[in-house]
Amino acid sequence: MNSTLRIGKYELKSRLIVGSGKYDSFQTTLDATLASGSELITVAVRRVNITDPAQENLMSYFENTNVKFLPNSAGCVNAQEAITLFRLTREATGIDLIKLEVIGDTQKTLYPDVIETIKACEVLAKDGFTIMAYTSDDPIMAKRLEEAGAHAIMPLASPIGSGLGIQNRFNVHFIKEAVSVPVIVDAGIGCASDAAIAMELGADGVLTNTAIAQAKNPIQMAQAMKYAVIAGRLSFEAGRIPKRPYATASSPVDGMIF
Fold first, then answer.
1. What is the DSSP string of 18-85?
2. Are 55 and 87 spatial neighbours (Cβ–Cβ below 8 Å)?
3. What's the pTM value of the predicted model, to 2 decimals?
4. Quick one: angle between helices 192-200 and 218-238, nearest 10?
5. What distance in Å separates the CA atoms of residue 46 and residue 193, rounded to the nearest whole number?
6. Could you give the CA distance from residue 4 to residue 233 in angstroms, rounded to a whole number?
7. Runs of H (alpha helix) within the chain
8. How far, in Å, are 51, 80, 85, 128, 182 from residue 141 at the CA level?
């Protein structure tokens, strides 16, 4: 299996990316992340402490692991807010791999403002950031983001935290056809089968947070997500059989003796 996920200058063995929000403690965040096998955890730097050593700091929990931090711009509603946030974060942490998200509807759908995302992407790319861009499941906007300098496109499966799974499977295909950078299905994953479907559709990876953090047993769900992503990728690479309207015999009848 081609297990290496390349995003700009970075290489990851796991194609599963996890989040750090909604857990009951930093310890559970660590335990679930390790159980998932993920090497990348996204962190809302406006809401989770990773810079102040005087307070409980999430980064300290991951000091002796191979897990990288992926700062995200959750809470930013325009390009300039996101640009300023990431510049300050890089200065404080040295991290240049980022998840860019600019939210247009902060009250109901949490859908991204893709126009503002593109504006921010153009500036941050020139600043030398490696950018993973959260966006709607629109292949036209996905291409625009790639042209703006994004190193990975992260289309939503459905609204953030909804657990609805992939609502438009065709758009995953369309986005994969439109761009040459990795496509990471993000937002709306509800269970392991959703992650497997995303991978079977040809996605290069999956990001999930709420499905693990809010599960009755986050550790078990993290393990389930790990194996679902592996199984989905194997299935995609193996190649599914074509769909047919009628049955075909499992044992061929050609050449029957009697």
1. EE-SS-S-HHHHHHHHHHHT-SEEEEETTTS-SS-TTS--HHHHTTTSSPEEEEE-TT--SHHHHHHH
2. no
3. 0.89
4. 20
5. 31
6. 11
7. 26-36, 58-61, 79-93, 114-126, 139-148, 169-178, 192-200, 210-213, 218-238
8. 33, 19, 23, 22, 15
Enzyme catalytic residues: 99
CA-closest candidate to residue 128, choices 68, 83, 81, 75? 83
**DSSP structural state of residue 225:** H
Instruction: Kindly state the tokens that stand for 146.
Output: 């790639």
CA of residue 80 relative to chain centroid, distance: 23
Residue boundaries of the structural domains of the chain: 11-238
145 vs 52, 164, 170, 177, 243, CA distance in Å?
33, 25, 19, 14, 33
Task: Just give the CATH number of 11-238.
Answer: 3.20.20.70
Per-10-residue mean pLDDT, the chain, length 258? 83 95 92 96 79 76 92 94 95 94 89 95 97 96 97 93 90 94 95 96 96 96 97 93 85 65
Cα separation values, 153 from 87, 121, 239, 258, Å: 21, 11, 24, 57
Q: Is 140 helix (H, G, I), strand (E, B) or coil?
A: helix
